[in-house]
Design brief:
Blueprint lengths: L3 E3 H20 L6 E7 L4 E4 L9 E6 L4 E14 L2 E8 L4 E9 L7 E10 L5 E9 L2 E8 L8 E6 L2 E2 L3 E3 L1 E8 L2 H25 L7 E3 H24 L9 H23 L34 H26 L3 H20 L4 H4 L2 H21 L8 H33 L8 E3 L1 H15 L5 H19 L3 H26 L17 H25 L6 H25 L2 H21 L4 H34 L28 H13 L21 E3 L5 E6 L7 H8 L8 E3 L6 E3 L13 H4 E4 L8 E4 L12 H4 L3 H10 L11 E2 L5 E2 L5 H9 L1 H24 L8 H12 L11 H9 L1 H4 E3 L4
Length: 923
C-alpha cells in the first residue's frame, strides 16, 4: 500500500478498471436487463364472477423466458373487503413457488394491478397463477381466445372449471437481457467515456502535476466516495423511504448497522496500516526465532515465486474442497452425492499434486502421463457415455468425467511415488527435514483400521487413502512446516466466499423456521461448519492480541488487530443467527480454552493479554452483529435472486425476488422471540404483524367475514384452511381475547403469555428429514432444530433432546468388529439414523477398539496441538490446529461429524499433518 506510482498511471488504471467492470457487467455478465411484456393477444370480452372464499380463479401459462418480473392483472371491481391473495405454482414440480397479498384498496380500479414476482423459471415449463382472497370479493377481467396470438397462454379456470373461450386479461412482464445491438452500443459508449476520462486525466497530470502518489492514497481517493454513496443510498432506503420495514425498532437497528458498517469501512480505508494481509495467514511474532535474520518476515515471503503460486493454488483448492463438502451435505439423492464426493476427492488429489517441485511438476514423466491420460480418458468417455435418451444422462456422464479425472491424477501420483522410491533405492533422494511423530503413527494405524473394518463403508477407505497420500507427499516435499499457514489460508478464503454467496443469494427469513442456515439446508450442519470457522478466527485474533501485548497506544492496538476482529465478529454473528445451542457450546468452550492458552503463553503480560483478549472478542461481536444482521437482511432482497433448497422450510411469501419488506423476513422482534425460546428456554414473545392489517380491529378481531362482508360486533374468525390451528384455541374463552400473528399469511391465532407460539413447532419431531440416499447405505439426518427442543421441567433428557436414549440404544449394540448397517434400533422399534455422538458412532460402525483408537486420536490431537502452539513462536496461525481439533471434539459429543464429506472432518484431516510431523534434529 505504500508503493509509489505516478498520479496519471494510478488514476488511468482506476479508470480502466472501472471501465472494464462496467463493460463486463453488460456482457458477458448481463446484469442489466430489459422488461419484455407478453400478452394473450385477444380482445377484452368481459369479466369473471366474484372471486371470494369459495370461488378462485386460475390461469395457466408456459414460461417464454427464464425470469418473470411481474404479472399485471386487470381487476374490474373490488366489491367487498380489500385483499387479493395470489399463489404462483410450478405445475411440473407441483409446488408453490411464491405467495403475495395485494391491497386492492390502494389500487385505481378498474385497471391493471401489478403483482411483483421476481422468480426464475424454466423456459417451456408449465406455471399457474391462482387468485384467492383474504376476506374479500373482487372481479377479474377476461379476454377472448379468438384472435389470440400467444400459444403460451394456457387455460383459464374459475372455481376448477375451464372458462371456455377466455383467458385472464393480464400482462406477463419478463426480465430479459438487453438486445445485442443495445448491449454493443452501451459497451462502445462506456469504452469511449473511459478513453475520454483517461485523456482528461492526462491533461490534468502533466509535468509538475504528475507527482508520485502511494497506492494507499489512490485507494482512499476512490473508495471513500464509494463508501459514502453506498451508505447514504442504503440509509435512505431504510428511512425515510422505509423500503425494508416500517417498524421503528427495525428501522433503528438497520440504521445502526449501516452506520457501524460505514464507520468500519472508513476506518479500513483510511487507518494507518502496520502490517499486510499476509499477517493473518502467518508471520513471525515480535519474538521471532533467536538469532534468525528473517525476524518479522512473512512465511510466504520466504518462498520462491513458484512455491508462492503453488501455495495459493492449494489455498484455493482447499476453499473449493469445503464448497463441495457443503454441496454433499445438501444433496438429497445418490447421484448428487456421487458427484460431490468425486469433486471433493479430485480437489484433494490436486492439492497433493501441487506439493511437487517445479522440476517434478513440468517433468517429461508428468507431461507424457497427462497427455496419455487425456487421450485414453477421452476415448473411454466416448465409448461409455450415456446417450441423451437415457434418464439423467448428463449427471451420469458428469460422474464419468470426474472419475476419469481422478484416475488420471491418481496415476500421476502413483508414478511420482514410484520415481521417489527409485531415488531412495539408488540413494539419490534427499532426506526430508521432517519425521513422523508417534502421534502420526497412531493416525496411520487408525486409517488402516478404517480400511480393514470398513463394514461396507467405502467412504472411510477413500478418506484413509486420499489423506495418507497427501500426508506422505507433503513430508517428501518438506512442506509440513508451512502447511498450517496454507490450510488456514484456505479456511479464510472459503468463509469469505461463503459470506459473499449468502449476502447475494440467501434470504434471511423469519418464518417458518427462522434459524439461518447459510449455505446449508439444515442448521445443524451450519453450526458445525461455523464452529470450525469461528474457532479458527478466534485463534488468529487471540494470537494477534498476545503478540501485540507490547503495544501501549489504543489506536495502534486497534489497527494491529482490526482485520482479525472483523473476521471473528462477522463469523460470530452468523453463528448467533443459527440459534444452535450445541454450536454455541462447542465454539464458546473452545474460545475460552484458547484465551487461557494465550494468557499462559504471554508470561508477564498475562493479565493484559487476558483482558485484551476477552475485550477484543466481545467488542468484535457487539460491533459486527448489527452490521451483519442488517446486510444479511437487506442485501439479498435487493439482489432479488434467492436460492432455496428443495427441502428448505421458508414461508412462500418470502421467496420472491421483488418484495423488499415482507413480514416473513427476519426482523428484530422475531429474532428476539426465537432467541428467548431456543437459547434461553423461555416463552416466545408475541409477533403482531400480518400482511392484511386492515382486516382486523385494534384487538385483533376480524372486521370482515370470509367474503369481505363487514361483521356486526366483535367476532373472532379463523382463516379457511387453518382450522387445525384454531379449533382448540377457540374452545378456551379465557384465551380467545389475545390474538397474535402466526407464521401463516393472514392468520391470527390466540396465544396465552405462557404458551409456546404455534408456528415455532420446528422441533425434532416435526421437521427432521431423513436422507437415505447415501451411496454407502448410511442415512444422514438434516434436522433444523434437533438440539433445540426444551420442555418446561428442564430435565437433562429434555435438554439433550432425546440424545441420552439414542446413546443407550447404540451402546447396547456395540461389538468388537462393527456393523454393516448404519443405525441402531430403539426400544420402540424405530430406526435411529445416527448416534448424535461421533465417538459412539465410530465404535458402532467399526467396532469398540476402533472407537477407542479414534477417541485417543482426537484427545491426543488436542494435547499435541497445544504443545505445538506453545513451541511455535513464528506463526499467528499456530493455535488454529488446536482450535479446530478441540472444536471438532466438543461438537462430536452431540453430533456425528466424522464422514469424508463433512466440513468438520475435512478441516480436521487437513490440519492433522501439522502435528504428525516434526523437524529432524541436526548436529
Amino acid at each position: 500500500m505504500n508503493r509509489e506510482v505516478k498520479k496519471f498511471h494510478a488514476f488511468a488504471f482506476v479508470i480502466a478498471l472501472v471501465t472494464f467492470a462496467a463493460i463486463i457487467s453488460i456482457f458477458p455478465l448481463r446484469i442489466w436487463n430489459d422488461v419484455r411484456t407478453e400478452v394473450g393477444g385477444g380482445f377484452e370480452n368481459g369479466y369473471t364472477q366474484g372471486v371470494d372464499s369459495t370461488h378462485d380463479a386460475i390461469q395457466d401459462f408456459i414460461a417464454q423466458y427464464d425470469r418473470i418480473d411481474s404479472i399485471s392483472v386487470y381487476v374490474n371491481e373490488l366489491t367487498k373487503g380489500r385483499y387479493m391473495h395470489i399463489s404462483f405454482w410450478d405445475v411440473d414440480k407441483w409446488r408453490v413457488m411464491y405467495e403475495e397479498t395485494i391491497d386492492l384498496g390502494e389500487e385505481q380500479l378498474p385497471g391493471y394491478v401489478d403483482i411483483p414476482l421476481g422468480l426464475d423459471l424454466e423456459v417451456g415449463g408449465n406455471y399457474r397463477v391462482m387468485f384467492t382472497v383474504w376476506h374479500a370479493t373482487y372481479v377479474l377481467g377476461t379476454e377472448s381466445i379468438e384472435g389470440s396470438t400467444n400459444p403460451a397462454i394456457g387455460s383459464f379456470y374459475y372455481q376448477d372449471s375451464v372458462v371456455e373461450g377466455s383467458h385472464l386479461l393480464a400482462r406477463y412482464n419478463y426480465s430479459v437481457p438487453m438486445s445485442k445491438v443495445m448491449s454493443l452500443t452501451l459497451m462502445v459508449m462506456v469504452f469511449m467515456i473511459g478513453c475520454a476520462l483517461v485523456c482528461v486525466t492526462r491533461t490534468l497530470c502533466r509535468d509538475a502535476a504528475n507527482k508520485y502518489i502511494t497506492v494507499g492514497r489512490v485507494c482512499q481517493y476512490v473508495l471513500n466516495p464509494v463508501a459514502v454513496i453506498a451508505y447514504v443510498s442504503l440509509a435512505a432506503m431504510v428511512f425515510p423511504l422505509r423500503l425494508f420495514d416500517n417498524r421503528a425498532s427495525d428501522i433503528f437497528f438497520y440504521e445502526l448497522g449501516l452506520l457501524l458498517a460505514f464507520i468500519t469501512a472508513l476506518y479500513a480505508i483510511n487507518h494507518k496500516r502496520n502490517d499486510s494481509i499476509s499477517v493473518a495467514l502467518g508471520k513471525y511474532s515480535a519474538k521471532g526465532v533467536a538469532g534468525s535474520k528473517t525476524n518479522g518476515r512473512s512465511l510466504l515471503g520466504e518462498m520462491s515465486l513458484f512455491d508462492k503460486i503453488m501455495s495459493f493454488g492449494q489455498m484455493i483448492l482447499i476453499a473449493l474442497t469445503f464448497v463441495y463438502a457443503s454441496q454433499y451435505m445438501n444433496d438429497l439423492y445418490d447421484i448428487y452425492h456421487s458427484i460431490s464426493e468425486r469433486q471433493l476427492v479430485l480437489c484433494l488429489l490436486l492439492i497433493t499434486i501441487l506439493f511437487q517441485s517445479r522440476k517434478e511438476l513440468i517433468s517429461i514423466q508428468n507431461i507424457v502421463l497427462s497427455v496419455a491420460g487425456v487421450v485414453a480418458g477421452f476415448y473411454y468417455y466416448h465409448k461409455n457415455q450415456l446417450p441423451v435418451t437415457e434418464k439423467e444422462y448428463d449427471l451420469h456422464n458428469l460422474i464419468l468425467k470426474l472419475s476419469i479425472a481422478i484416475v488420471i491424477v491418481s496415476v500421476i501420483l502413483i508414478a511420482d511415488y514410484v520415481r521417489y522410491l527409485l531415488k531412495v533405492v539408488t540413494k539419490k533422494a534427499s532426506r526430508s527435514s521432517a519425521s513422523i511423530t508417534l502421534y502420526g503413527v497412531f493416525v496411520i494405524v487408525f486409517f488402516v483400521c478404517l480400511i480393514v473394518l470398513r463394514n461396507t463403508r467405502w467412504w472411510g477407505v477413500v478418506l484413509a487413502l486420499v489423506f495418507a497420500v497427501m500426508y506422505i507427499r507433503m513430508n517428501i516435499a518438506d512442506r509440513s512446516a508451512r502447511w498450517n499457514t496454507i490450510a488456514t489460508g484456505g479456511l479464510i478464503l472459503n468463509i469469505i466466499y461463503t459470506i459473499g454467496y449468502c449476502l447475494l443469494f440467501r434470504y434471511f427469513t423469519g418464518f417458518v423456521m427462522g434459524r439461518y442456515s447459510m449455505q446449508f439446508h439444515t442448521v445443524t450442519v451450519t453450526a458445525e461448519y461455523l464452529t470450525i470457522m469461528q474457532v479458527m478466527a478466534a485463534a488468529l485474533l487471540l494470537a494477534k492480541v498476545s503478540s501485540g501485548s507490547k503495544i501501549s497506544r489504543f489506536k495502534d492496538f486497534v489497527s494491529y488487530v482490526f482485520k482479525e476482529m472483523l473476521l471473528f465478529g462477522v463469523i460470530s454473528a452468523y453463528m448467533i443467527f443459527t440459534l444452535s445451542r450445541t454450536g454455541y457450546l462447542a465454539a464458546i468452550v473452545t474460545i475460552m480454552v484458547l484465551i487461557v492458552m494465550v494468557t499462559i503463553r504471554a508470561g508477564k503480560d498475562a493479565v493484559k493479554t487476558l483482558v485484551r483478549g476477552i475485550a477484543a472478542c466481545i467488542v468484535a461481536v457487539i460491533i459486527a452483529f448489527p452490521m451483519t444482521f442488517t446486510f444479511q437482511r437487506i442485501i439479498p432482497v435487493i439482489v432479488g435472486h434467492p436460492y432455496f433448497f428443495e427441502v428448505e422450510d421458508a414461508a412462500p411469501s418470502a421467496r420472491g425476488g421483488s418484495d423488499l419488506n415482507d413480514y416473513k423476513y427476519m426482523s428484530i422482534e422475531r429474532f428476539y422471540s426465537l432467541f428467548r425460546q431456543k437459547i434461553l428456554g423461555v416463552s416466545a414473545t408475541e409477533y403482531n404483524f400480518v400482511d392484511d392489517p386492515y382486516n382486523y380491529d385494534d384487538n385483533g378481531n376480524y372486521l370482515y367475514d370470509e367474503d369481505g362482508n363487514l361483521l356486526n360486533g366483535a367476532e373472532v374468525g379463523c382463516q379457511e384452511g387453518a382450522a387445525d390451528y384454531c379449533r382448540d384455541i377457540l374452545e378456551d374463552a379465557d384465551r380467545s381475547d389475545r390474538l397474535v400473528a402466526s407464521g401463516i399469511d393472514g392468520l391470527y391465532i390466540a396465544e396465552a403469555a405462557d404458551t409456546e407460539v404455534l408456528e415455532d413447532s420446528d422441533n425434532e419431531g416435526s421437521d427432521t428429514y431423513y436422507d437415505e440416499s447415501s451411496t454407502e447405505g448410511e442415512e444422514e439426518v438434516a434436522s433444523e432444530g434437533e438440539e433445540e427442543q426444551t420442555s418446561e421441567d428442564g430435565s437433562v433428557d429434555d435438554y439433550s433432546n432425546g440424545r441420552i436414549d439414542i446413546w443407550k440404544a447404540y451402546i447396547k449394540e456395540l461389538n468388537l468388529t462393527g456393523h454393516d448397517e448404519m443405525g441402531a434400533v430403539a426400544e420402540d422399534g424405530e430406526l435411529l439414523a445416527h448416534a448424535h455422538n461421533v465417538y459412539i458412532q465410530v465404535a458402532y460402525d467399526h467396532g469398540i477398539p476402533v472407537g477407542i483408537l479414534f477417541a485417543f486420536v482426537i484427545v491426543a490431537g488436542i494435547a499435541f496441538s497445544g504443545v505445538y502452539y506453545f513451541r511455535n513462536q513464528r506463526s499467528f496461525a499456530s493455535a488454529v490446529p488446536f482450535a479446530v481439533i478441540t472444536g471438532f471434539a466438543i461438537a462430536g459429543l452431540t453430533e456425528w461429524n466424522f464422514q469424508l464429506c463433512n466440513p468438520m472432518t475435512v478441516a480436521l484431516m487437513l490440519l492433522l499433518p501439522v502435528i504428525m510431523f516434526k523437524e529432524r534434529k541436526t548436529d
